[in-house]
Amino acid sequence: MKLASLGEDAIVARLTRGIAPGAGVRIGIGDDCAVVGGKRDAVWRLLKTDALVEGIHFLPDSPAPWIGWKAMARPVSDMAAMGGLPEYALVTIAIAPEAEMKRLQGIYSGIKRAARRFGVKVAGGEMSRSPGPLFLSIALTGTVERERCVTRAGGRAGDFLYVTGRLGGSLKGRHLRFVPRVEEARWLTESFSIRAMMDLSDGLGSDLPRLAKAGGAGFRIDRLPCASGCSARQAISDGEDYELLFALRPKDGPRLEAAWKERFPRLKLTRIGQLTPRGQTHLARGHDHFAQPR
Amino acid sequence: MKLASLGEDAIVARLTRGIAPGAGVRIGIGDDCAVVGGKRDAVWRLLKTDALVEGIHFLPDSPAPWIGWKAMARPVSDMAAMGGLPEYALVTIAIAPEAEMKRLQGIYSGIKRAARRFGVKVAGGEMSRSPGPLFLSIALTGTVERERCVTRAGGRAGDFLYVTGRLGGSLKGRHLRFVPRVEEARWLTESFSIRAMMDLSDGLGSDLPRLAKAGGAGFRIDRLPCASGCSARQAISDGEDYELLFALRPKDGPRLEAAWKERFPRLKLTRIGQLTPRGQTHLARGHDHFAQPR
To answer: What is the model's pLDDT at position A133?
Structure first.
């Protein structure tokens, strides 16, 4: 059977069958990051790898420094989504011998800039020849206080659903230049009991059903923060927004909304809807394609 | 300037210029693994990524389970070379949508087998489409007792040089099916003061000059443990031996050689030569290509 005829989730489920989580693995396959550490450790470690493939995640003419920025920013965004902070990075590049040194240096300058911005220490890496497209992968370790670690799975029916920023249209450039919501996520987990959180990488239409399902819930969408010039459809399915999606007990809603405006006056926060009892997924008018997440 | 006209070491040197090691990075770019931790921590953490590219590190018709085995065994071998043990792994695969699920499952079965054998817990990973060759990367964390951590850089003129096993001819199959020398390396660092160590991945002809240079030394080769049917030239330059190369004070030599025979009677250990004062690199007759490591 060809991979193309299965979905990514189905492929992963088949491949990882028989992999026991193993001692020390607090959160394994299926969340934004793997979490390891002792049950009672005050600080847990986060592990994440994220890869960019030329022609899929960037184009041959994408500006080299932004390719490097994106390669680092994506796993940093995943750590933010767990409530954590990045620490050490290893950089893997597979590249054609005919490639220009200048391009590689440009990519690295973007990696280094993002590393400085988010406090990541580049501790090593590896380079390989490749007869194919440029491949760039960053393995990142990080930390999160046990008390502040947020998974995708904690949401329950009734929780309010929030999204930071605006969604859709990322291919115009934001997919390369986005700023991971580290500061916002740290503030959220410090000040509030966030029940579930993830970053929107595949688009709300794919990611929200995952968050709801992980918590054994359905969901209802009331409104969407569409990026300028974007339709609701784009906001749902373009993907690569790298905004935070999170769930919060309704009673904490008013305090959060007021505090957010004070703390992040320039970043929109939208209550998009609610988690509902399992099986009761309601769609805003016109968003039928939610029924079949791509 | 094209990458092909520079060497790997020169490319890495240019790219990583300006990357300060950063707090907590005990050993950064340039050794088998990155080592992180506090100066006085009893146990340090090891970080390593290693990638296989189809057409470079394996062929389209290589048996899938052995591709997976190799992908895991290579970074495990790097951890062994530091005196450490692997702990958690993340698996990254980029693969064409037209690929067969069966092949991917075969690769994963090899990864899981190697993980069980070496006590590695697979904590997560990532999958991506690729329009090019199959790309498989494993990011591995591990641990090493500070007192037992061995780098490439500790060798000094006069030290004996040892190699485990036999060298050359790995392309006949051993490059896929090798067993990383974890047990041997752990025994060595427990029982002896190993001054410098690395695993032979690029071949003795490339790797020994690196180990000597890292310690500010030259080297002299007296003998080589050639694999059956292999010439000295092959033993030096075929690469992918994944044997241990290490340096030891001469006074410890006799005790090591006797104890090794008792502990590992079925694995050859060869004293191949000595480190010499810097600039005094002597070559066994007929190995002129040592002068120009590829």
So the answer is: 93
For the record, the structure tokens of B231 come out as 């010439």
Specify the DSSP element, H or E, that contains B263.
helix B253-263
Q: How far apart are CA A56 and CA B91, in angstroms?
A: 19
Identify the pLDDT of residue B283.
61
- Give me the pLDDT at residue A287, please: 38
CA distance A117 to chain B (A): 13
The model carries a pTM of 0.92
List the 110-139 stretch of B: residues with Cβ below 8 A of A: 112, 115, 121-133, 135, 137, 139
Residue of chain A with shortest Cα separation from B53: A130
Does A94 contact B at CB distance below 8 Å?
A: yes
Please tell me the predicted confidence (pLDDT) of residue B122: 95
CB contact under 8 A, A139 and B49: yes
**Exposure b/e, A51-71, CB count within 10 A at least 16 = b:** bbbbebbbeeebbbbbbbbbb
Show Cβ contacts of residue A256 under 8 Å, excluding neighbours closer than 6 positions: A162, A192, A248, A269
Domains and their CATH numbers in chain A: 3-146 (3.30.1330.10), 160-291 (3.90.650.10)
> What is the pLDDT, as a whole number, of residue B13?
85
ipTM over the 0.95 cut-off: no
Tokens of B242: 């994944």
Q: Which of A9, A35, A45, A49 to mutate to test the interface with B (most CBs of B within 10 A)?
A: A49
How far B16 CA sits from the closest chain A CA (Å)? 8
| A178 token code pair | 């986005």
Which DSSP category does B289 fall into? G
Give the mean pLDDT of chain A.
92
